[in-house]
Design brief:
53% of the residues lie in helices and 0% in strands. By secondary structure, it is mainly alpha-helical.
Length: 213
């Protein structure tokens, strides 16, 4: 599940709570809304992502601080060039004014100031699309220093889609016969494990048909 991280469906009984956005894989569910849309778990996750995007990364803070001093310095140099250039060299005012404008265009830090937050936000959004929630640009940049990652009690990271990798039949039954029987029984099931069995059998026998059940 996107919220709990469980790779398999969870059985729910009468009185159990459901997350907003839960997917019913089998059967019908009758539920009662107990909270507003903005108070759901998904809404809190979305709010956390927005808060993360608003936090400035160390690189962004450095660029902002750099631009704070760099921009006035460029303005002073451009004005000095326009004023003192003609006085020192005796050239035309219009020519030196043009040179100062060229300096402002070339030295403008807009691209540097804009590119840093855009890069951070793009990284946070891309991670969120892959199921990774990063609390902010600070942690996104700090990820390059990671050497050890601690997972949950299962110690696994999955895509939530089981895949049949191997099969061992009981007794003397051929493996293809065992898979055929299992796929025939699970062909119409919506359970992820059942789908994995059926897809695994179809991969081994793409042109074969299941048994009527």
């Amino acid at each position: 599940a996107p919220i709990t991280g469980e790779s398999l469906p969870v059985d729910k009984q009468i009185g159990d709570s459901l997350y907003a956005g839960s997917i019913v894989t089998d059967g019908v569910v009758e539920a009662v809304v107990t909270a507003a849309a903005g108070e759901s778990t998904l809404a809190r996750i979305a709010a956390a992502i927005q808060d993360a995007q608003s936090q400035r990364a160390p690189t962004q803070r450095f660029v902002d601080q750099f631009a704070h001093y760099y921009t006035p310095a460029v303005m002073v140099v451009a004005i000095a060039l326009a004023v003192f250039g003609p006085l020192i060299t005796g050239g035309a005012w219009s020519e030196w004014l043009y040179q100062s404008l060229v300096l402002l265009v070339i030295a403008c830090p807009c691209a540097l100031v804009i590119s840093t937050p855009v890069t951070v936000v793009s990284g946070l959004a891309a991670a969120a699309k892959h199921g990774i929630l990063i609390k902010g640009g600070v942690y996104l940049e700090g990820g390059r220093l990671l050497k050890v990652v601690a997972l949950d009690k299962t110690g696994t990271l999955t895509q939530g889609k089981p895949v049949l990798t191997d099969a061992i039949p009981f007794g003397d039954m051929p493996i293809e016969t065992a898979l055929l029987m299992a796929a025939s029984l699970d062909e119409h099931s919506t359970h992820p494990v059942a789908k994995a069995l059926v897809n695994g059998w179809k991969t081994r026998q793409p042109n074969a048909n299941t048994l009527p059940v």
